[in-house]
Amino acid sequence: MSKSNLPPRRKKQKWPGWKPRRQLNRQGRTMTATYDLTASDFWAFSTRLYSDPAIAALCLRLQDNAGVNVNMLLFLCWCLKHQRLVVLKQWHTLKAAIAHSEHQLQQHRQRRRAARHDVSEEHAQYAQLKASELELEAQQQADLVSAYNNMTVDTTDIPGINASVVAFIHAYNLRDNTAAIADIRQIIKESV
Question: Whole-angstrom Cα distance, residue 188 to residue 173?
Fold first, then answer.
């Protein structure tokens, strides 16, 4: 039987939802991967990082002065620590995934800050508002992790800073905000 008479080879079938686990690119420096990050793992990472008073102060300054979402900033640190490359389009997807909870958090944060300055309010009410805000933050992180787990991201074998930082800066339109960029650099230096 000649080769021209042979039936064509069948391509291997992939199951629905199949994603490549690892695929080297031409340079051999990055890999495409999907990983399942859990909300509890990210929460643990975030609370460890945020417990540093210097990092907490920088995060809050970026939130108040530049409109940066603290959970997204902490997620950037997680990505750098775990060598994940999140591109601009993916940062926009992540921002969209938490847009509703961000609005809720901003409203809640305003109420909590007003209660802090109102001397007639009891301390217990302020503590309750703070605890509720932490629950909203945890839910926002769960939404962020869920959106991330539905993405395919690149990883790198080069530790430390990567293109995710530039994409993050562009996602928040901070490229001309030297103070915000300096704060982000400091957070990265302290966390990675």
Answer: 18
Give the residue extent of every domain in the chain: 35-191
Q: What is the pLDDT of residues 128-176, one digit of tens each?
A: 888 888 899 999 999 999 999 999 999 988 777 789 999 999 999 999 9
Question: Which residue intervals of the chain are DSSP H helices?
Answer: 39-50, 53-66, 70-81, 88-97, 99-117, 123-149, 163-171, 178-191
Question: CA–CA separation, 172 vs 82, rounded Å?
Answer: 22
Tell me 116's DSSP state: H
Q: Residue holding tokens 């997620």?
A: 75
DSSP 8-state symbol, 21: S
Q: What angle do CA 68, 60, 102 make, to 5 degrees?
A: 45
pTM of the predicted protein model: 0.77
Evaluate whether 62 touches 184 at the Cβ level (below 8 Å). Answer: yes
Rounded CA gap, 73 and 132, in Å? 21
β 153-156/30-33 pair status: antiparallel
24 by DSSP, 3-state: which? strand
pLDDT digits (tens, 9 = 90+) for 27-52: 444 555 556 799 999 999 999 999 99
Tell me how far apart the alpha carbons of residues 65 and 154 are, in angstroms, rounded to a whole number.
31
